[in-house]
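Please produce the structure of this protein holding zinc ion.
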Amino acid sequence: MEFSSSCIECAKPYPVIKRDELAEGDHIINAGTFYDDHAIVIKIEPDVRDRSNLQKARVVLIHATTYPLGISIGTIRQTVDYFDFKRCNIMIVKYFNRPFTSEEIIHRAKIQLGMPIIFPFMNSCEYFATHCVTNKIFSVQGRKWNMNLKIFFFHGLDGLSDEKLRNQVAHERELICKPCFERNNELFGVKKKAIRKEYDVHEGDIITFSYWKIHHDAIVMKVHENQTRNMKGVDLTFAHYAFCGPFISRTIIEERKTFPLDGSVIVNLYKSPQFNVYSPTETTARAKMRIGEQNFALFLNDSCNFARWCKLKPESLFPVNKSRFEKNVKNIAVNVIDT
Ligand SMILES: [Zn+2]
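Below is the modeled complex.
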């Protein structure tokens, strides 16, 4: 199966919290307040000032962004950056199929060093990075927005907040490829159980409930014992991407609340062997590591994406293409922009 440049799901951002999750040749996004910088990772090393800290790294990057606010004029440049994964919002773009090996991607980036930026002012850093990885030019976020505008137009807000419907519509309109459609169907069609008793929900579960009148997901951090026998509800501490007011960015926080036992709150039953999941302790630890993050992006890094990232291992989130490294695609002209 080829990488599909027309599929909006074949390239997906995935948050990174530790140095060893990054690899040389990866396409990364350093999400900023005003713009997102995309780059190719050339080298990763420990930060000499704090070697044993896996949350810090010295990273050599090649990218097309050279000026503040994402304006790209000039040439493709190599820079050295120091990342603190706890503070920076770094994401890897996971590709369903990378036609080049890591070494080839690095080579493709290096031979463009010093070349003029082809598309100033137009997502040039993203175009540069996607072209190094796939030999095609596209914007991950731009394509996703186009699809969502179409879904909003045909199905309104309900359509947008229902992941399964979004997936179906995207498939019908040929905006996603078959493996991505099938993988999403499995993820979004997971068995669900309505919470009617305290013991229906456990630490590390993904729960879905209505939040500001839309579907919202959270990780259960702790199920508190019912102190008063008459209390009709389940007392939970949960982690989620909270709405913190109109002028404050959405933030991942821990919150404690008593939920009703009327079946309105749902547990998503992600379990092995169908899904490769982290243990409850690992799941809550992953959630804790992202508390305070303000990198909300609707459909890319929202409450559902955060909850699944905590619970599910990458193998379950992305369709695996086993033939990826068996291919021997070489000698593809780097300067030809072949979309
Ligand atoms: Zn796809």
